[in-house]
Specification:
The complex is a heterodimer of chains A (292) and B (339). Chain A contains eleven helices and four strands. Chain A is mostly helical and 292 residues long. Chain A has one domain. Chain A has a two-stranded antiparallel sheet. A two-stranded antiparallel sheet of chain A has the order 2-3. In chain A, strand 2 and strand 3 form a beta hairpin. Chain A starts with a helix and ends in a 14-residue tail after the last helix. Chain B has 339 residues and is mostly helical. Helices cover 73% and strands 0% of the residues of chain B. Chain B contains 14 helices and no strands. Chain B starts with 8 loop residues before the first helix and ends in a 16-residue tail after the last helix. The chains are: A mainly alpha (292), B mainly alpha (339). Chains A and B meet through helix 4, helix 9 and helix 11 of A and helix 5, helix 11 and helix 13 of B.
Chain lengths: 292, 339
């Protein structure tokens, strides 16, 4: 009984991680950048949804606004901060990403205050828990899992079947060669950031429905864990992000169920270290040899 | 250029030692005679601690070319081991100077052991993975500190640490750190570390054991971070896990990056300025993190090597230039000086 509801719990959390992890994974696959600001885009998405619902916008429209807001923000960040550094050493790019993440967090803190605000989750998903012979099943969890599956299917279609997806795959294979074949790399990179941010926006709404609090630092730990999920699955790989996200979500719920909830964050990172020690490219990652 | 005047090595050492001792006496007199008030003295101590942290992180970031994001974790390990040592040595008959010394040594060694432990799995990986694994390590340390209250005091913190960090202790540690790191970087080990930064594959094919040197540089960096942690424990008198979070690591990284990765004088200047500014300008504090993050982005876009680049300060070199009347603005064509 308890097992099933815990499993569902883990799947719900894991789905959110997977959605966020995809954003990391896709961006890394294309420009080899750990986008530290990704987690903070989620936070901004949460605030957009919160404020638009508070000002009387229809919840469905608020969700769309949050997603579009995340996309625009991510594209702006890419143009302003990452594009000038595309040929710079990777370490500079990484430090810039850390800077962007800090900037978003602190600007949010200045504008919205450091404290957490409660999120009107009931106006987005308003349903009681179902109960089947003693098993409590949360509707939010079911909705989260279904939305995630749909998003994954759409994303897979986008990457595998459309022209833009083909261009994305080409750029991630070899940026220089793709450019020579007439692919507009700048468009593809912007598009990738936008898609990643849209998934982050969906993740933000689902996350806020599960933990109905929005605060300037909510994105940092969520982002880090999602990043761990992406690394675990093999960064740059879409199925890897899904598997990694579910693995982290289930592991977290398991640790909590055993009664060690205070150790959750430690366990997540310990899993990362152990996996990377034995399989440095994660579950599904391609191993890349550096050419001299 | 046969008639160049050179300053011989013993004279160089003499000049440097004299300056170090003079500065020590000056600082001691100023801080103990009541010339500086309490706030100023504590500012000086904090600057010293941050100089050690920045210079030690520079070993891993600037010289080795990796990006560890868990420097505060090593600092935490050092701080807690030193704090516990000093607390327990209060009851023993150990004379205070020896206890201070042993505490700092313990702090450094424990942190270095952690550095090796994390270094072995982490350094098999490249850049980004290393960054994230050290970040994870920093978080694990913090979670462990919170969850082991019997040893570390948990969330409320470790209280009642004797306040051993006075000017002389901090100053000597700063000098020791800078001299030790400078000497190592001038040795063949230092050159091996630099060669890994420049090109790992080329270094490896020249017969340099890259893993060994990476772990060594990492442990070195952790050792001094541990000492800085010990000084921090003796400065604050209490330790809370919150002061060693991810933001603390980033704070140190900002100093190194702004100062110039690979420049010791850059780290020292950046650590001094960035520690002093928020305390001197209270109103600055609200916008401090925003300005830091903007600075970080702007510096990376316009001058990725940091404000000082890889320039390193050398008093003897400047003196020699003055002796030889060889000033940069008189430089002739085809007479490029490698700085």
């Amino acid at each position: 009984m308890l097992f099933i509801s815990q499993l569902l719990n883990g799947l719900q959390l894991g789905s959110i991680y997977a959605l966020v992890a995809l954003g990391y994974s896709m961006v890394y696959g294309i420009i080899m950048l750990l986008n530290f600001a990704h987690g903070d885009i989620i936070m901004i998405g949460g605030y957009i949804a919160l404020f638009s619902i508070a000002s009387g916008v229809h919840p469905a429209l608020a969700v769309v606004m949050a997603i579009v807001g995340c996309m625009l923000l991510a594209m702006l960040i890419e143009k302003a901060a990452y594009k000038p550094l595309r040929s710079a050493p990777r370490i500079s790019l990484l430090i810039t990403a850390i800077g962007v993440s800090m900037l978003l967090q602190n600007v949010a803190q200045l504008l919205f205050g450091a404290g957490a605000r409660s999120f009107p989750s009931s106006s987005i998903i308003n349903a009681q828990n179902l109960s089947f012979g003693g098993i409590q099943i949360s509707i939010t969890a079911i909705v989260t899992i279904i939305v995630t599956i749909i998003s994954m299917l759409v994303l897979t279609f986008l990457v595998q079947k459309t022209k833009m997806g083909k261009a994305m795959r080409a750029v991630s294979e070899d940026l220089g060669a793709a450019q020579l074949m007439g692919i507009n790399v700048n468009h593809v990179v912007s598009f990738t950031f936008a898609v990643g941010a849209a998934l982050a926006g969906i993740g933000a709404i689902l996350y806020c429905c599960r933990y109905p609090l929005v605060s300037p630092t909510m994105g940092s730990l969520l982002g880090l864990k999602a990043f761990v999920a992406a690394v675990l699955g093999g960064i740059g790989s879409i199925p890897g992000a899904m598997v990694g996200g579910l693995a982290i979500g289930l592991a977290e719920v398991l640790v909590t169920a055993v009664g060690l909830s205070a150790w959750t964050d430690g366990v997540v990172f310990a899993i990362l270290i152990i996996v990377l020690t034995f399989r440095p490219t994660g579950f599904f990652g391609r191993s890349m040899m550096e050419k001299v | 250029m046969e008639n160049q005047k050179h300053i011989s090595m013993p004279v160089r050492y003499g000049i440097n030692t004299t300056l170090i001792v003079l500065f020590l006496i000056m600082g001691y007199v100023l801080t103990s005679s009541g010339f500086t008030n309490r706030a100023q003295t504590s500012l000086i101590l904090q600057i010293g601690i941050y100089i050690i942290l920045a210079v030690s992180l520079n070993v891993a970031t600037g010289y080795l070319g990796q990006l560890p994001l868990g420097h505060a974790g090593f600092m935490a390990v050092g701080a807690y081991s030193c704090g516990i040592f000093w607390k327990s040595s209060l009851a023993s008959a150990l004379p205070t100077p020896i206890s201070i010394f042993l505490g700092l040594v313990v702090a450094g060694i424990v942190a270095a052991i952690f550095g090796v432990l994390i270094g072995i799995p982490a350094l098999r990986l490249k850049g980004d993975y290393l960054a994230i694994i050290t970040l994870g390590f920093g978080e694990i340390i913090r979670v462990a500190i919170i969850n082991l209250p019997s040893i570390t005091g948990g969330t409320p913190g470790l209280l009642g640490i004797p306040k051993h960090s006075n000017f002389i202790v901090v100053y000597l540690c700063v000098v020791f750190t800078i001299v030790a790191i400078h000497m190592m970087m001038k040795s063949r080990h230092g050159r091996a570390i630099l060669s890994i930064r420049e090109n790992e594959i080329a270094a490896e094919s020249c017969g340099i054991n890259t893993t060994y040197y990476k772990v060594m540089a990492f442990a070195f960096s952790a050792f001094f971070a541990g000492i800085a942690g010990g000084l921090y424990a003796g400065f604050q008198g209490l330790l809370v896990p919150k002061s060693f979070d991810f933001m603390a690591s980033i704070n140190i990284l900002v100093m190194v990056v702004l100062g110039g990765m690979g420049s010791m004088i850059g780290s020292v200047i950046a650590a001094t300025v960035l520690t002093a500014l928020p305390l001197l300008l209270q109103s600055f504090n609200t916008y401090r993190m925003i300005i830091y993050s903007l600075l970080l982005i702007i510096v990376m876009i316009f001058k990725p090597s940091g404000l000082m680049g890889m320039y390193d300060f050398s008093l003897s070199r400047i003196l020699e230039r003055i002796l030889n009347r060889d000033f940069p603005w008189k430089k002739k064509k085809g007479d490029e000086v490698n700085v």
